[in-house]
Write a structure and sequence with these properties.
The chain is α+β, with helices and mostly antiparallel strands. The protein is about 20% helix and about 40% strand.
Length: about 550
């Protein structure tokens, strides 16, 4: 019995050394096989040890004297202690191998999607040329815009209280390379959307943060979490349904951008008895005012020498955001969610003072904005009325934006007065009825004249649908071809704008809401009409692998 035990301990020791010397995939597979063998040997050894002890105890009762029994018990106790120590040592080494090969090391996952979009636009008007009238096309299109999107997911849970999560990404248009960027100006790599817009093949960090958690706060049953880094703030609640993703923290109705920041969540379910109640505080920075390390440039591109990373008086201020999410109830079937945020030092293009001859002079700070969201969702309609309704999701959401323009600036959204915009959004997702995992979805949203969201990273190539100052309609079907790893989706999105500027910035240069009907066939507005989208549609088909 001792020989296999010694060999097993020796094998575990060799594996531990091998782990440090060679961490290739073949070595890890061999380790896993050895772990299974060691675990089986442990079970066999424990069973054999128990049987031997029982048999020897019976034989002792029948055949040995009281004196001999006492001596034999002492010997068996010594042997038992030695065996138990060796068993414990072997179990510790198996646990160590487990930690080194899986439990405490970085784990990777892949999410790869290839898609083709048919993009069609009807412009608000044609170009107007003196003595020729309105000329040119009032439509634009791309019949087959093809993209590859890759997410490389990373996770490392060191203990029950702290973990790391990261994601590397690219979103690449077919045939485009990072060595040539003449077709894509700097806005395409703006920090809020750097991994969401399709352009080159550069792999960038989409998220990277550590995550702390505990079940108590100050001795009370208040579970809490805290994280800081590049936080996952895209594909948030409700918008995640059509994207077939788990929801990130924010509510996607009025914020969907990448951010560097922190969040802290406190759960109140245990102390209040109300299911799912929690509050979450968030803060982020969407733009940093700081010189470069060696030299800096002003808004016109003129270089100059400056102190490394000091504040740059010639640049726009830091763009900061603070907010809170409060969920008063969520039992898994019925949920209510609310969100508020305040964004400071929002930006727009500085186009000079002559509207007849605009010139781009960089970006400028135009003011601040408040935003509110409230939504109600049902995940399973009724109480076991039917399998179809049990697997049906319905939601309704309302959102408001309130501008706070700078007193001495150009104004926000075409005015120096504070303006309130609003939007509502409803959606329904049902099982397909003919496939186990297939899902149909229908969504509609409407935004008014002064509605403004920060949803530039929304996964819609014709522009954010929930940002529309007008009406947006969407229908989609998602299903899986191979288990839960290989899926496809076909989606139709149609946007009918009532006002321009839905996907602009926050000032008056790109965010002013001109009524589409006022732009059409108006010679004085021909230049703006020719570059303003009246109606847009996107038909997308994708194949997606996740593991």
């Amino acid at each position: 019995m001792k020989t296999p035990l010694i060999l097993s301990v020796a094998a575990a020791a060799v594996l531990s050394v091998g782990l440090q010397a060679d961490e290739t995939s073949d070595r890890l597979e061999a380790m896993q096989a050895q772990i299974e063998t060691l675990q089986e040997e442990l079970a066999t050894l424990k069973t054999a040890n128990n049987i031997t002890e029982d048999e020897e105890a019976d034989e002792t009762d029948e055949q040995v004297s009281d004196e001999d029994e006492e001596e034999e018990d002492d010997e068996e106790a010594d042997d038992g202690d030695e065996t138990e120590e060796r068993l414990t040592d072997l179990e510790d080494q198996v646990s160590e191998i487990n930690r080194n090969t899986a439990g405490s090391h970085l784990k990777f996952g892949v999410d790869f999607r290839t898609a083709v979009d048919n993009l069609q636009y009807k412009m608000a008007g044609k170009a107007y040329v003196k003595d020729q009238g309105f000329v040119g096309k009032d439509t634009q299109s791309n019949d087959a815009f093809m993209t590859n999107r890759l997410w490389i997911n990373m996770n490392w849970k060191a203990t029950d209280n702290i973990s790391f999560t990261g994601q590397l990404a690219y979103n690449k248009a077919y045939g485009y390379r990072s060595g040539f960027n003449g077709g894509y100006p700097g806005f395409e790599t703006f920090d809020w959307i750097t991994n969401e817009n399709a352009y080159d093949d550069t792999v960038r960090v989409r998220s990277a943060y550590f995550f702390l958690r505990n079940d108590e706060m100050f001795g009370a049953a208040l579970p809490w979490t805290f994280s800081i880094g590049r936080r996952p703030s895209t594909n948030g609640h409700l918008i995640n349904l059509r994207d077939d993703d788990h929801a990130a923290s924010p509510m996607g109705h009025n914020i969907n951008v990448e951010f560097d920041g922190a969040s802290a969540k406190i759960g109140f379910e245990d102390v209040t008895g109300i299911e799912g109640m929690y509050v979450k505080f968030c803060a982020g920075r969407g733009g940093t005012n700081a010189n470069a390390k060696f030299f800096t440039v002003d808004q016109t591109g003129t270089p100059s020498v400056a102190a490394p990373y000091a504040k740059n008086s010639a640049d726009i201020p830091d763009i900061d955001l603070i907010g809170a999410i409060f969920v008063p109830y969520d039992d898994g079937q019925y949920s209510v969610g609310t969100q508020y945020y305040y964004a400071a030092n929002l930006i727009d293009a500085d186009m000079g003072t002559n509207p007849q001859q605009p010139t781009f002079n960089g970006m400028t700070d135009v003011g601040n904005m408040h935003a509110l969201t409230a939504n109600f969702a049902i995940n399973g309609i009724g109480d076991e009325w039917s399998d179809f309704l049990d697997d049906t999701i319905f939601f309704i959401s309302g959102a408001w934006s309130i501008t706070d323009p700078k007193k001495d600036g150009q104004g926000m959204l075409g005015t120096t007065d504070s303006k309130t915009g609003s939007s509502y959004w409803i959606g329904l997702q049902t099982p397909s009825g003919f496939s186990e995992m297939g899902r149909f979805g229908l969504e509609y949203n409407h935004g008014d004249k002064y509605w403004r969201s920060i949803t530039y990273a929304e996964d819609t190539n014709i522009g954010s649908k929930v940002a529309a100052r007008g009406n947006a309609f969407e229908a989609y079907y998602t299903d899986y071809l191979i288990e839960d790893v290989f899926s496809f989706q076909i989606r139709y999105t149609y946007i009918d704008y009532d006002y321009s500027g839905s996907n602009g910035f926050f000032g008056s240069a790109t965010g002013t809401p001109y009524k589409i009907s006022d732009l059409q066939n108006n010679p004085q507005m021909a230049g703006l009409a020719s570059v303003t989208v009246d109606k847009a549609q996107d038909i997308r088909f994708y194949l997606r692998y996740r593991y």
